[in-house]
Amino acid sequence: MFQRARGTRDFLPEEMRQRRAVEMQMRLLAERAGYGEVCTPVFENLELFTIRSGENIVKELYAFEDKGGRNLALRPEVTAAVLRMYVNEGKAIPKPLRWYYVANCFRYERPQKGRYREFWQFGVELIGADTALADAEVIMLAEELLRCSGVSFTLQVGHLAPMKYLLSTLREEEQRTMMAFLDKRDFAGMRESLVTLGREDLEGKLGDLAAARDLDEVFTITGLIPEEERIRETCSILDSNGCRYSLNFGIARGLDYYTGMVFEGFAENLGAENQILGGGAYRLAHLFGGEDVPSCGFAVGFDRVMVSRGQVLLPEKRAVGIISVGEGRKRVFVVARAFREAGVRAEVMLTVKGVGAQIAQVARIAGFAVVIGDREAREGMVTLKDLKSGVQRTCSLAEAVEEVTRP
Ligand code: HAM
Known about the structure:
alpha+beta; binds histidyl-adenosine monophosphate; 5-stranded mixed sheet; elongated
């Protein structure tokens, strides 16, 4: 027996129904906010991902050489591809651009619950707007998408400037190391590293920053920084518009392209892999040959949302099972089409068992059985049996459709 590749999953119809229901809700919200769907290739030139993050990232990718000797990688995320596309195709379109995507991504990670090698992201990118309103729009959309998915979550919002300001006397490589420790809230690791660098003096302030929960505290720790006004403005828009979030200036985000606001969503009922959303303000277009354009976006970890939400009862669609006998077979798909056009799920029974046995089969999948035998075919009628009440009558196809669709 063949097994699936490690870290991948199959989805049966009921699971897909649940996934699509959430996805459709997210699409609806994004579209109503003015975002249009985009689609980029599943694989890209490897350099698209190494140009910002360095060669180190390759070990986390599905990277390969194709038959033409090109170095390619399955996308680990979509933001870089979307910005590449913007540089290739979108520069002439009036800004800001509001784009969204639903895409499978691939990361060579150690699989565990909520962490897969193939997973799906629902993402949003707002390209070419650099205002507090733009930051707030994206954060509020993130909150709305999580809310509509039915998960219990917390949203944390921060900004990289205060942390970068405190770390500004370190070399870039050292700054990255410290940010990684802070991001993981690994204060012991951070302390050890600061001691090695002879910079224990930073420990207190960095710890205080990660623990700070209001803006006055943050700016007392940093002193005056140029970004203060923008940060205060964004938060004030979020507050006055009823966004529910908490501040966390210890968020550093693992990806290397963020420049300003950063935010993350956490599900309350997941274990270690509880981050269900990540995003922030970034600049990438200039790396791909475009002019420097400020952007802001996020991606929802769709699979984690589905795990957190669990199975939810969805309304059953009205359904009929169509049983045909003898001459009835000649009309069976015409009858099915009439129900389908009226929005009813119509399944054609494919066996040659007796009508009684087929009705028992239909009862497992639908509320009504429609029988077309020789007589019905001759008279242009159908026999409709309500499987709940057991009542059956022979009538025209239009009347049968009307009865099944009646509210
Ligand atoms: P990210 O935080 O790397 O950000 O991924 C976004 C979300 O994808 C995570 O919060 C998580 O829920 C989900 N995720 C990541 N890895 C896995 C995995 N192995 N299995 C299941 N789910 C996973 C980005 O990818 C950025 N491109 C987001 C962004 C958009 N920033 C600006 N625009």
